[in-house]
Write a structure and sequence with these properties.
Elements (H helix, E strand, L loop, with lengths): L2 H36 L2 H9 L1 H12 L2 H7 L5 H33 L4 H8 L1 H18 L3 H24 L4 H23 L9 H35 L2 H34 L5 H28 L1 H9 L7 H10 L3 H13 L3 H22 L4 H27 L3 H26 L5 H22 L3 H19 L1
Length: 485
């Protein structure tokens, strides 16, 4: 595939992945509000208690083998069929394990209903495993539009199911069957769109080769799953349920844009970069664009959220949520480094060096847990500051191998992004100053947001920012292609 075709695929993929992410978040937001008005918080808590068990089981079910298929250059039907049957087998195994241990989970939380809920919700593990290979094949074929449409259809069906059952008085079971309905629709649509059927074959050699790549992703995925849940667990144990809510809400506001851009960049570019894994010059050129273009869009959003956090929280969810503002502000700054961390890891995936990914996790995560333990006695804000500091530490470590492989380490990356950082600082000052004369939250937002957008664009134009020029060219090409089409 030519460079121009790869660039076109990347742009189209980013657009459709962006549509998927933003549509999913919007639909989930609306569904969440409706269901929260019908069902009591306890029903949501029942499902939330099982999240860690389901997440770990799904991590084992895939075991990083979908990424192994995407990364492998000369994959065959035998490879795909082998991984398909592995996913099904492990999914069934973990379902049976959760079925058997459901009473112990219920006893642990002292909530008898969890026995039945666990046994039904865990069916989603099998449903997920059924479509993992088909989903990977759609990604390999760069069919991001199809994947986006599947996700949107699934969310609509999920919401309709949950709301209908909740109105009918099903209580927590509305959330249970909502989850199953969404996963079932996703699996059915993915099967239909992939046009691929597994062969009745399982190759030990194929599995061994793919397992060499995927097993490291499995271990690093498990480490990240535990770390991703540890802050909520510690805050819930050490402090109060209200402070858990404030942390989760502030973290959600800050993480949402970072996670959306990160997912867009990684999901779209992994299969594209994998096609040029043996050409370091092309890889470096694509890598620089991967660093600048998404972050040119993300950074002003994060900085803008930090500056407008207080009026934004008051307008959207009310003054009772104001304690989440400082948490949100700190994490907005910390999460500026999260996409960089994962983009650097993405290079190791492209090169097939998951052994280095795992090595980095064994170095970074002990530091993360030490920071957490050291910050607990000083309260939630200090804990959150520690989490933000860790994001920068993780970025620094992940840059080490990028420097070795492409001679493009931490300082070169920061230098490339420096104009965007400076632009964001100027924008933040302009937004803050523009909001000072006003006391009404809605007026602060109505003035601050346009000032932020305009000042950011003006500085980009005046300085002839390279990332701005690249984004402008992408938009022009896309509009021209749509016009010609």
């Amino acid at each position: 595939m030519s460079t121009q075709n790869l660039k076109s695929s990347a742009v189209n993929g980013a657009i459709w992945t962006g549509i998927e992410k933003f549509s999913r978040q919007a639909v989930q937001f609306v569904i969440g509000i409706i269901l929260a008005r019908i069902l009591p918080p306890e029903d949501f808590g029942v499902i939330g208690m099982l999240a860690i068990f389901i997440a770990i089981a799904q991590t084992f079910t895939d075991s990083g083998l979908s990424s192994a298929l995407i990364q492998k250059k000369n994959r065959t039907d035998v490879d795909c069929s082998t991984i398909f049957f592995f996913n099904i087998g492990v999914g069934v195994l973990f379902y049976l394990l959760l079925f058997a241990t459901a009473p112990f989970i219920a006893d642990f939380y002292n909530m008898p209903i969890l026995t039945d809920v666990t046994r039904v919700v865990a069916l989603s593990i099998i449903l997920s495993g059924l479509a993992a290979v088909q989903n990977a094949r759609l990604t390999i074929e760069l069919r991001f539009r199809t994947l986006s449409l599947i996700a949107i259809i699934s969310m609509v069906v999920t919401g309709a199911t949950g709301i209908a059952l909740a109105y009918s008085g099903w209580g927590v079971w509305a959330l249970v069957f909502q989850t199953l309905a969404g996963q079932a629709v996703t699996s059915i649509c993915t099967w239909y769109c992939s046009h691929w059927m597994p062969r009745l074959v399982f190759s030990k050699n194929s599995f061994k080769q793919l397992w060499g790549f995927g097993s490291k992703l499995l271990v690093s995925g498990l480490i990240n799953t535990i770390y991703g849940n540890i802050y909520t667990l510690v805050i819930g144990k050490k402090f109060s349920s209200a402070e858990v809510a404030f942390y989760n809400r502030g973290n959600h506001f800050a993480l949402l844009p970072a996670q959306t851009v990160q997912d867009m960049a990684i999901k779209v570019n992994f299969p594209i970069l994998a096609k040029m894994q043996d050409d370091d010059d092309r890889l470096l050129g694509a890598y620089k664009k991967l660093l600048t273009v998404p972050l040119y869009i993300l950074y002003p959003v994060l900085v803008g959220l930090a500056v407008t956090a207080e009026p934004l929280v008051i307008v959207l969810i009310g003054e009772k949520w104001l304690p989440c503002v400082p948490i949100m502000q700190v994490l907005c700054i910390g999460y500026m480094f999260s996409p960089l961390t994962h983009i650097n890891l993405n290079l190791l995936y492209v090169k097939g060096r998951t052994d280095l990914v795992l090595k980095l996790e064994f170095i970074k995560k002990p530091i993360a847990f030490l920071i957490l333990l050291a910050s607990i006695p000083f309260g939630i804000i200090v804990m959150v500051i520690g989490k933000a500091i860790y994001e920068f530490i993780a970025f620094s470590f992940n840059c080490y191998y990028t420097g070795k492989i492409l001679n493009y380490g931490e300082w070169k990356q920061l230098k490339l992004l420096l104009p965007i950082f400076i632009n964001c600082v100027i924008m933040a000052a302009a937004v803050y100053a523009s909001m000072l004369p006003f006391t009404t939250p809605i007026l602060k937002l109505c003035i601050g947001i346009p000032v932020g957008i305009i000042s950011y664009l003006i500085f980009s134009i005046v300085t002839k920012d390279a990332a701005y020029q690249e984004v402008k060219e992408i938009v022009k090409r896309k509009l021209l292609s749509n016009y010609e089409g």
